[in-house]
Amino acid sequence: SLSFPAQLDPALPLGTHYLPCFCQGPGFPGTHLWPRPDPGEECGARLVPGATKPEATEVSPNKGILSVVDESAQEIATCHSRNGNPAPQITWYRNGQPLEVPMEVNSAGYMTSRTVREASGLQSLTSTLYLRLQKADRDASFLCSVRYDLPAGQHDLLDSPPFHLTLHYPTEHVEFWMDSPSATGGWVREGDSVQLLCRGDGSPNPEYTFFRLQDKQEDVLKTNLEGNLTLEGIQRGQSGTYGCRVEDYDAAEDAELSKTMELRVAYLDPLELSTREELSLPLGNSTAVNCSVQGLPTPALLWTKDSVPLGSGPTLSLSSLTFDSAGTYVCEASMPTIPRLSRTQSFKLLVQGPPELRAEETQPRSEGSWREGDEVRLVCSARGYPEPKLSWSQLGGSPAEPALGRQGWVSSTLTLKVTSALSRDGVSCEASNPHGNARHVFHFGSVAPQTAQAGVAVMAVAVSVGLLLLVVAAFYCMRRRGRPGCCRRGEKGAPPPGEPELSHSGSERPEQKGLLTGGASGGPRRGSGGVDCRSSEIRERDRCGEREAETDE
Q1: Which of 315, 334, 421, 471 counts the highest number of beta carbons within 10 A?
Q2: Are residues 358 and 347 in the same domain?
């Protein structure tokens, strides 16, 4: 009988033979029961058949703050590989490169390793890395890799998750700068918000002190761990020397922990002109206008008229003024080195003088090509100051309006029909203001009359009327031929339907008899000039009576 507790492997099938063995070595004190495939196998033979893949690699990094000032190697991390067979190997990596560290303890770096055989017969390996750190290791990536064997002489790797260290190292350099959208060459615009930033290269972040130098004395503005100072709505009086100091007591004595910079506030005051907003001068005069400005840095001045550059400098000189000289003049002050910092001031120049007239005929024709009744549109434009009034010698002119595309001009239009009177007298346009007037006469030359055209029209009407009468007469004759004979004695043809029957009885009214019978001589009655004024029917009946009388004789 055995005097030690026997622990059987539940994963093995029933009937498995166990061999009691007394083993000495790391992790194997005392006597254990080991399974064996066949009875009679001696202690020391293969105990666990085949190779076993270890569990996932685990790493436990040092989560404390490690100082690079320490001159000895410090514990970096511990790597664990559990339940593998045979025992795996552990390799440490920094930034993807293997670390060649010995097993012996030294100040530069080393590692320790410990193998444990588990109760299952599998083996677990633990490795701890020690290194003397440097400032460059603040961004280094570390990991451990486990190499284990596979059947047929193969092997594979199991890497741990990468990790980083938190290091403490003193400040060696300090950076101090300004962050502003308008910052150019140390200049900022007045009214902007300016942020001063300070950064040291030590870890963890040190304390930052911001100050301003005034009369060689430090005026402390703010102290914080963020390393920033914001100046809201900065004014020109805040120009000066600003500084930042890093409070790091672990830094070397020769380390430069303070920086200064010059902050300059750019400003531009409103412009002032030597004239009023509106300047009125007579035609032909000369003048000079000055533009003054206060700003820092010194601004540049530019004169323009209608967006056209005229020249640079504070003085604008204008000589021999014309109406074209009138308009709006602008003085612009800007600072090329400071974006979006500029000001403008303008004045309006009015040139006084009598009107200047310009006339045009929108439908011009050569002399002699006008005919009576032709329509013409006349345009009269004028300029001057005060603004001239436009008038026409004929009625119908439109009110004066600003001329399109002509600054300073006003125009009026007149639409009329050409007549002989216009050909003789013309049409005049007059522009006037308190300084004088100007007049233009539109001439049309000779105007052809409309007589030829009127004769043609009358002839056409006459021909049309004649044709109409001819058609009516032909129609009437055709109807008369269709009646029974009217020339036989005693026979009276019935009148056509709808016509009144004429009577020769004594009951006729006197006026009817006068129309139907001749005068005292018995002849037919005619009007003056020998024209028979009787109706065609009466004349026909008279002719029938005459033929009957001849027959009786």
Answers
A1: 334
A2: no
| 284 and 259 together in one domain | no
Contacts of 436 (CB under 8 A, 6+ apart): 353, 354, 355
Residue 513 lies in a domain: no
- 469-478 in b/e burial notation, b at 16+ Cβ within 10 A? eeeeeeeeee
Neighbours of 58 (CB within 10 A): 16
DSSP 3-state of 402: strand
The model carries a pTM of 0.54
Question: Which one, of 198, 182, 202, lies nearest residue 190 by Cα?
Answer: 182
Number of domains in the chain: 5
Both 340 and 366 in a single domain?
A: no
Strands (E), 132-227: 142-149, 155-159, 166-168, 174-179, 187-189, 194-200, 207-214, 217-224
Same domain, 381 and 342: no
Number of other residues whose CB lies within 10 A of the CB of residue 45: 12
Higher-confidence position of 64 and 461:
64
Specify the pLDDT at position 511: 38
* CB 346, CB 306: distance < 8 Å: no
Q: What is the DSSP letter of 543?
A: H
Tens-place pLDDT, residues 241-281: 999 999 998 888 888 999 999 999 999 999 999 999 999 99
Tokens 């007045």 identify what position? 190
Residues 81, 77: Cα–Cα separation, whole Å: 14
What residues make up the domain containing 106?
58-168
For 246, the enclosing helix (H) or strand (E) is strand 240-247
Amino acid at 67: S
Count CB-CB contacts under 10 A for residue 347: 18
| Sheet with 155-159, edge to edge strand ranges | 97-98, 89-94, 142-149, 155-159
- Reading the block at residue 427, the tokens are 């049409």
How large is the greatest C-alpha to C-alpha distance in the chain, in angstroms?
Answer: 200
Pair (279, 261) in one structural domain? no
> If 0-12 CB within 10 Å is exposed, 13-18 middle and 19+ buried, where does residue 103 land?
exposed
| CB of 447 closer than 8 Å to CB of 437 | no
For position 396, what pLDDT does the model report?
Answer: 75
Q: Are 385 and 433 in contact (CB under 8 A)?
A: yes
Phi then psi dihedrals of residue 331, to 5 deg = -105, 120
- Cβ atoms of 382 and 438 within 8 Å: the answer is yes
Q: Residue 94 and residue 111: Cα distance in Å, rounded?
A: 14
The reply to whether 396 and 430 lie within a common domain is yes
The verdict on residue 146 lying in a domain is yes
Q: What angle do CA 83, 87, 92 make, to 5 degrees?
A: 100
Contact at 8 Å (CB) between 163 and 142? Answer: yes
